[in-house]
Amino acid sequence: xxxxxxxxxxxxxxxxxxxxxxxxxxxxxxxxxxxxxxxxxxxxxxxxxxxxxxxxxxxxxxxxxxxxxxxxxxxxxxxxxxxxxxxxxxxxxxxxxxxxxxxxxxxxxxxxxxxxxxxxxxxxxxxxxxxxxxxxxxxxxxxxxxxxxxxxxxxxxxxxxxxxxxxxxxxxxxxxxxxxxxxxxxxxxxxxxxxxxxxxxxxxxxxxxxxxxxxxxxxxxxxxxxxxxxxxxxxxxxxxxxxxxxxxxxxxxxxxxxxxxxxxxxxxxxxxxxxxxxxxxxxxxxxxxxxxxxxxxxxxxxxxxxxxxxxxxxxxxxxxxxxxxxxxxxxxxxxxxxxx
Length: 340
Ligand code: AQP
Fold this sequence. Notes:
The protein has about 350 residues and is mostly helical. The chain is built from 13 helices and five strands. Adenosine-5'-tetraphosphate binds near residues 24 and 191. Adenosine-5'-tetraphosphate (AQP) binds near residues 14 and 27.
């Protein structure tokens, strides 16, 4: 099936499960803004609070993190006049479609999801059912808009494949061409930003070590300190990319530099090849502060007016439901629900 029958439409979201990291920004949020400004797509960006509660969240914290995430989106350049900005739980069609998808997805598919295994850890029997079903809700988040493109970091690739499998099976089982086969958009030099303490681990907002990540709200001194202390090796930077083989920490810092500066990795190595980390790290810290500080200040300004954030989210939910209600109704008709 070709996507041509579908409006080019972008959907993506993040969990309000903690402050955003540089990984969330470079892997996803920066792309949200670029795709919004390209003018090719309708864009819908979401705070996925229902996903966040698949692991325990303090209720008051969840509400404030949700507003903080909305402020981060806007501060980074998501424009509520150009994009639809929503909080997931305010658009009930996400969960209604998710139930249908729970009946489409197969146990074997879900059991293969590596994120569940990572997050549930050794105690899988004690994980919430919601954590296990998470990817079916994610498929519904995307497909309830008939979204054709989803900008995400590399860690979400498997969930996007599952979304495509669910759409394909639904279309096949019911003999329709109803859901698009959504394309992941995993692009840029930093699709998987790694921990500053361990080059084999993803930078993550829920990592217990704050030194492992750069938070979007870290001040200049904290950013400089974390980069200065980032794990590296004693060798100088190479002049070519293949010189970064087997040097995951060095590669991570070079990728971060390229993504922040919007230049290629080759260009970074052309400019900094031969430099020691004692020189490269301060240059990276300066660049990170230059790019992140204005976003952090704008977030603080926006968070001074919580009623305005709530108003934008309520308006976003209304705009979203103009798209989601007809798609859910048609899904119910296809499935055979009386009164759809
Ligand atoms: N380290 C990363 N590098 C590149 N992209 C990343 N993303 C997350 N970490 C990196 C992308 O950010 C988006 C938001 O993801 P999420 O909020 O659904 O949670 P996640 O993927 O599980 O990210 P975290 O930071 O690791 O959150 P926690 O710790 O709460 O689980 C996604 O597009 C993701 O690819």
